[in-house]
């Protein structure tokens, strides 16, 4: 990471170490904001559309994002950075049970994912699930810390690999996004549904009754 290809925010310096000009930073910020808006409405978005809506020339656009895939990488990274900020906005109390922390994390992450559901659809189609999955590493690390904490507290089960439980959580969240995008699930209902599904799945069966809901 660290290039325009995979970062939602441009580095302050170029690859050769020289500082970026202020107007270049402004152009990049405008292109990112415009791209998020356009891809949030339709998948039929060309680079020319982005340049026109952003008020920049195509040469300028391609100088920062040489291809549509480069731009999509940057848009996804921007969305994930917003998820990081939302999750980190309320640091967890060390004494707070991990299941409550996870329930709050799921709700916070959903608020951002719901905003960028259509972008996710386009990114999956054009970048592929493997590249998109790698972009989620920062969120995965945060989730891994919560799962490890829950296992230490005895709240989460330890008979399954932590990586598998994290994968299951991601799968359920993304399944909810697919259902909401298809219209089969109301976006507002997703946080409660995720808590009611994820938390019992991770709960330590020796300390919590099967199907127990979060507090």
From TrEMBL:
Span of domain HTH tetR-type: 25-83
Disordered: annotated span: 1-24
Keywords: DNA-binding, Transcription, Transcription regulation
GO molecular function, one term: transcription cis-regulatory region binding
Pfam families: TetR_N
Top-level taxonomic group: Bacteria
Composition bias type Basic and acidic residues, residue spans: 12-24
DNA-binding region residue numbers: 46-65
InterPro entries, per the entry: Homeodomain-like_sf (IPR009057), HTH-type_TetR-like_transc_reg (IPR050109), HTH_TetR (IPR001647), Tet_transcr_reg_TetR-rel_C_sf (IPR036271)
PANTHER family: HTH-TYPE TRANSCRIPTIONAL REGULATOR BETI (PTHR30055:SF234), HTH-TYPE TRANSCRIPTIONAL REGULATOR RUTR (PTHR30055)
Protein name: Transcriptional regulator, TetR family
């Amino acid at each position: 990471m660290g290039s325009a290809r995979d970062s939602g925010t441009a580095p302050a310096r170029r690859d050769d170490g020289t500082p970026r000009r202020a107007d270049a930073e402004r152009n990049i910020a405008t292109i990112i904001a415009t791209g998020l808006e356009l891809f949030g409405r339709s998948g039929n978005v060309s680079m020319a559309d982005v340049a026109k809506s952003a008020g920049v020339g195509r040469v300028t656009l391609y100088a920062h994002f040489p291809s549509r895939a480069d731009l999509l990488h940057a848009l996804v990274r921007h969305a994930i950075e917003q998820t990081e900020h939302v999750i980190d906005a309320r640091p967890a109390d060390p004494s707070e049970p991990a299941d409550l922390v996870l329930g709050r994390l799921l709700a916070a992450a959903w608020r951002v994912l719901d905003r960028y559901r259509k972008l996710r659809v386009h990114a999956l189609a054009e970048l592929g699930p493997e590249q998109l999955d790698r972009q989620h590493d920062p969120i995965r690390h945060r989730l891994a810390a919560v799962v490890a904490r829950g296992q230490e507290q005895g709240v989460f089960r330890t008979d399954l690999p932590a990586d598998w439980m994290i994968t299951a959580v991601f799968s359920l969240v993304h399944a909810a996004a697919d259902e909401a995008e298809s219209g089969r699930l109301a976006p507002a209902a997703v946080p409660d549904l995720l808590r009611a599904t994820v938390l019992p799945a991770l709960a330590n069966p020796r300390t919590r009754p099967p199907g127990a809901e979060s507090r």
